[in-house]
């Protein structure tokens, strides 16, 4: 019974979330009273005009920014109320993030970049690199392990970024326009990879995209407009 309850609990929940940016005298209310549940293994698209607040929402959901009001619950804990260090720990344990620009560390190899979240949580290097090698193979880049980001194509860099987001086996992956800088063919391949890893690992995927074609291939599409989810 308790297992059943645990199973139906959302992996990520947003409650009455508002975000107001304060620029000197000017207040910009970007998000207003957002409520949102992401269930285990679910595939959700978030769409909306440029400036609608999609990135703001994702950053707050990832605990990378604080809401002005409201709560974010991740894996059963009120994430947004935690201090910086426990929040970082909880994020590392349960959440993967893929940015529009890959945000890989230029001085490190693809393998070390993918292993980084595990090294941060102090896993032994050999074990971290073993897991990183498995993920690099899963994204089709086993033969690029020693390459630095500058030696990879845009699509390859995004695949490394996806491997890095999934190496910790997170319960949810947030991706902010991960295919936004890619051509259509590469974008399709990166999207297919995300969907494949969603099936293999059971990680829920929240994808911000401009591409209505990609959004249409998710289970659910949420539209942000005027600070709210329509
Ligand atoms: N750090 C910030 N300070 C002030 N305003 C911001 C900040 N970040 C974003 N904004 C503003 O909030 C709005 C939403 O931005 P964003 O979340 O990036 O939208 P989207 O990702 O949907 O394009 C925009 O008007 C943007 O200018
Ligand atoms: Mg954005």
Describe, in plain words, how this protein is organized in 3D.
- The protein is built from 8 helices and 10 strands.
- It is of the alpha/beta class and 230 residues long.
- The protein has a single domain (40-66, 95-229), classed as P-loop containing nucleotide triphosphate hydrolases (Rossmann fold), CATH 3.40.50.
- It is globular.
- The model has no long low-confidence stretch (mean pLDDT 92).
- Magnesium ion binds at residues 54-55, 176.
- Magnesium ion binds next to helix 2.
What is the domain total for the residues?
Answer: 1
- In the CATH classification, which architecture applies? 3-Layer(aba) Sandwich
What pattern of helices and strands is seen along the backbone? HEEEHEEHEHHHEHEHEE
Give the strand tally: 10
What's the overall average pLDDT, rounded?
Answer: 92
Determine the CATH superfamily. Answer: P-loop containing nucleotide triphosphate hydrolases
Bound molecules: adenosine-5'-diphosphate, magnesium ion
Uncertain runs: none
- The secondary-structure class comes to alpha/beta
Summarize the structure.
The protein is α/β, with parallel strands linked by helices. It contains 8 helices and 10 strands. The model has no long low-confidence stretch (mean pLDDT 92).
Please outline the helices and strands.
Elements: H1 2-8, E1 12-23, E2 26-38, E3 43-47, H2 54-61, E4 69-74, E5 77-78, H3 84-94, E6 95-98, H4 110-120, H5 125-138, H6 154-166, E7 172-176, H7 184-201, E8 204-208, H8 212-215, E9 220-225, E10 228-229
Parallel strand pairs: 3-8, 3-9, 6-7, 7-8
Antiparallel strand pairs: 1-2, 1-4, 4-5, 9-10
Helix pairs in contact: 4-5, 4-6, 5-6, 6-7
Bound molecules: adenosine-5'-diphosphate and magnesium ion (MG).
Adenosine-5'-diphosphate binds next to strand 1, strand 2 and helix 2.
């Amino acid at each position: 019974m308790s297992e059943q309850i645990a199973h139906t609990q959302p992996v990520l929940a947003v409650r009455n979330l508002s975000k107001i940016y304060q620029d000197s005298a000017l207040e910009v209310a970007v998000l207003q009273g957002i409520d949102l549940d992401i269930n285990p293994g679910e595939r959700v698209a978030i769409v909306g005009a440029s400036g609608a607040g999609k990135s703001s929402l994702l950053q707050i959901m990832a605990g990378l920014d604080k809401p002005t009001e409201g709560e974010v619950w991740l894996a059963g804990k009120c994430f947004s109320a935690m201090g910086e260090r426990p929040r970082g720990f909880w994020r590392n344990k349960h959440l993967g993030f893929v940015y529009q620009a890959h945000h890989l560390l230029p001085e490190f190899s693809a393998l070390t970049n993918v292993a980084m979240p595990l090294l941060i949580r102090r896993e032994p290097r050999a074990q971290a690199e073993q897991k990183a090698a498995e993920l690099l193979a899963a994204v089709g880049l086993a033969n690029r392990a020693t390459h630095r980001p500058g030696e990879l194509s845009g699509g390859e860099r995004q695949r490394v970024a996806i491997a890095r987001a999934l190496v910790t086996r997170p319960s949810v992956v947030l991706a902010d326009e991960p295919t936004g800088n890619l051509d259509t063919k590469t974008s399709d391949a990166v999207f297919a990879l995300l969907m494949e890893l969603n099936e293999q690992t059971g990680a829920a995927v929240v994808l911000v995209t401009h591409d209505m074609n990609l959004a249409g291939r998710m289970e659910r599409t949420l539209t942000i407009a005027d600070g709210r989810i329509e």
